[in-house]
Specification:
TIM Barrel, 12 helices, eight-stranded parallel beta barrel, 345 residues
Length: 345
């Protein structure tokens, strides 16, 4: 019997009569039962760690807009990859802060087999062959104007950009990239990259399509990290998706899959959980989200001010991606989360 007084409403009905005996709190009453019926779970296998690269040796550079995140010289990136592998993180994704002297209007530095990204890929794969390497062939780290494509007369030219990034993708595969993840949003780039990879003997190199990259305000700290803050001329609305659109995002994903993408990415992450769910339901393909710099920095800033419990919010947001349908998440929190999970917290 219930040891507490029974409730009777104005109509004389008890709670059991109101709920028809269905008390949904029963399986929430204890830790063991909550764990038993938990629908989604975050594990280290869900984590991809984006890291930033810089020139030099034995260098670690703090990024002011991203507390706790650093740029690494290639030798330091190797050490961080070793740490990630020991924590069980399956893959890392590299992004480079290119020397301004090496940037130009067409982003030609992406065609250098020994550019910073390719050197880091070779070094990491030599030292830590078991970790997955994901590389981006967008031109923005290499352009003087900060755009993801080649700028001609104020216009980002699609086909010339596709030709350039396709050549860059082959060089990245040759350096040891396991997954090419083009983030530029040019039409036809997935199919062109797939054909070029296959033609050059890289049939086993996968493509993770930034299928739905939105023209978002959440990218600001990232642009400081790769050194493009203040360089961008205009905006990226002619090639990124309008944040108001969902059907367009589905069409983009469908096209990328038709061209040969092996997995899909939604970027940014938390503001676009509805897009993640739509893509997973529509295509049942491996689906990832990028918890971008603005999302990370908001959590860090609010945590530093004592406005939120930073660790709990970190874990809750990552679990939200899993609940929405993600198979994995690119997050700057990856090593912290991996350590927490390893400790069994």
């Amino acid at each position: 019997m219930n040891k507490y007084p029974a409730f009777a409403g104005p109509q004389g009905r008890t709670v059991d009569e109101i709920t028809q005996g269905r008390r949904l709190r029963r399986m929430r009453k204890a830790d063991w039962s909550r764990r038993l019926v938990q629908e989604n779970q975050l594990t280290v296998n869900d984590l991809i760690w984006p890291i930033f690269l810089c020139e030099g040796e034995n260098r670690r550079e703090d990024i002011g807009a991203m507390p706790g995140v650093q740029r690494f010289s290639v030798d330091m990136a190797v050490r961080e990859a070793e740490r990630a592998a020991k924590l069980g993180i399956p893959a890392i994704a590299t992004f480079a802060n290119i020397d301004p002297a090496l940037r130009d209007e067409t982003g030609s530095g992406i065609l250098d087999p020994d550019n910073l990204i390719n050197r880091a890929t070779r070094a990491i794969k030599d030292a830590v062959p078991e970790i997955g390497m994901i590389t981006d062939v967008a031109l923005d780290p290499f352009t003087s104007h900060g755009h993801d494509g080649i700028l001609r007369d104020g216009i980002i030219v699609n086909d010339e950009t596709v030709e350039q990034i396709t050549k860059g993708a082959v060089l990245q595969a040759a350096a040891g990239a396991d997954i090419i993840a083009p983030s530029d949003m040019m039409d036809g780039r997935i199919g062109a990259i797939r054909e070029a990879l296959d033609h050059n003997g890289f049939q086993d190199v996968a493509i993770m399509a930034y299928a739905t990259k939105f023209a978002s305000a959440f990218y600001g700290p990232y642009r400081e990290a790769i050194g493009t803050s203040g360089r961008l001329k205009g905006d990226k609305k002619t090639y990124y998706i309008d944040p108001a659109n969902t059907d367009e995002a589905v069409r983009e994903a469908e096209q990328d899959l038709a061209e040969g993408a092996d997995s899909l990415m939604v970027k940014p992450g938390l503001p676009y959980l509805d897009i993640i769910r739509r893509l997973k339901d529509a295509f049942a393909m491996p689906t990832f989200a990028y918890q971008v710099s603005g999302e990370y920095t908001m959590i860090k800033a609010a945590g530093a001010n004592g406005w939120i419990d930073e660790e709990r919010v970190m874990m809750e947001t990552l679990l939200a991606f899993k609940r929405a349908g993600c198979d994995g998440i690119l997050t700057y929190f990856a090593p912290i989360v991996a350590e927490r999970l390893k400790a069994g917290a």
